[in-house]
TrEMBL record:
Residues 1-29 are annotated as: Disordered. The lineage of its organism: Bacteria, Bacillati, Actinomycetota, Actinomycetes, Micrococcales. This is YccA/Bax inhibitor family protein. The keyword Acyltransferase does not apply. The keyword Cell division does not apply. Keywords: Membrane, Transmembrane, Transmembrane helix. Pfam families: BaxI_1.
Length: 271
């Protein structure tokens, strides 16, 4: 059973489709096969086995391709947002709404997922341009650090040294709720002028500590995404679940990038 991650993998609809496929997706012997000649049967069983994609099953390659497409749309949106920073707020609001819609949809919607990637790109482009104007080179550092963290997390997961467990997942969910409530409170206090500065209560040493904590949460979210994909491929999940996996990975990478960008900005601001 998948541990957390994308909820679609644990939904009733997903379980029913997986059970219908069976553990290997093999079909039972049909009436037509029973009446074939020996040579026809031999030719049939001599054919190469169908790939997961041909059988309509989730594959790693499909997840990689869909994720690359989403990240490509994020980059395109970011390029536009970089040139037109005024679109940052639009990207943030529409991206938030689409993120919530995609999170709670029973079936993945490729169009909505791609729109989410594009609008989040507008937000990232605007906020990146803002910080790049203040701290030259910070965006390149943040992008490099983000993909470095992603690569290290993937290597550790593949080696078996960083895996999701039920206990860790429960702790992750509690920590995530706490982090979300703190971020909401900080945003409200900044909006009402109770606290000042670029990051409100997330400045200085406290800001660095919270940022490091958020990066650790994001790495565990990546592990949950990897686990959901692995379980989906193993159980023969429908190919459309590749969009769900791509959405989850895109959300986590965007979150990771923003947290790293914030940490670097605090460090550069203290220089």
């Amino acid at each position: 059973m998948a541990l957390g991650g994308n909820p679609v993998f644990n939904s009733k609809n997903y379980r029913e489709q997986t059970r219908a496929a069976g553990p290997t997706g093999a079909a039972s012997t049909t009436y037509a096969e029973q009446n074939m000649s020996p040579q026809a049967l031999q030719d049939l069983y001599s054919k190469p086995s169908a790939s997961g994609l041909q059988m309509g099953r989730l594959t790693y390659n499909d997840v990689i391709n869909k994720t690359a497409l989403c990240l490509g749309l994020v980059v395109i949106g970011a390029a536009i947002g970089w040139q037109l920073p005024a679109l940052m707020l639009v990207g943030a609001l529409v991206g938030l709404v689409l993120g919530l819609v995609n999170s709670f949809k029973r079936e993945p919607s490729p169009i909505l997922i791609m729109l989410y990637a594009g609008f989040e790109g507008l937000f990232l482009g605007g906020i990146s341009a803002f910080f790049e104007a203040r701290y030259s080179g910070i965006v390149f550092q943040a992008v490099l650090a983000t993909f470095s963290v992603f690569a290290v997390t993937l290597v550790l997961y593949r080696s078996g040294k960083y895996r999701a467990t039920p206990k860790m997942t429960k702790m992750f969910m509690i920590a995530l709720i706490g982090y979300g409530l703190f971020s909401l409170l900080n945003f409200v206090l900044m909006l009402t002028g109770v606290v000042g500065g670029e990051f409100g209560m997330r400045s200085g040493g406290l800001g660095l500590a919270i940022g490091a904590f958020a990066v650790l949460l994001a790495t565990y979210a990546l592990v949950l995404d990897f686990t959901s994909v692995s379980e989906g491929v193993r159980q023969g999940a429908p190919a459309k679940m590749a969009w769900t996996a791509a959405f989850g990975l895109t959300v986590t990478l965007i979150w990771l990038y923003v947290e790293i960008l914030r940490i670097l900005a605090i460090l550069r601001g203290n220089d």
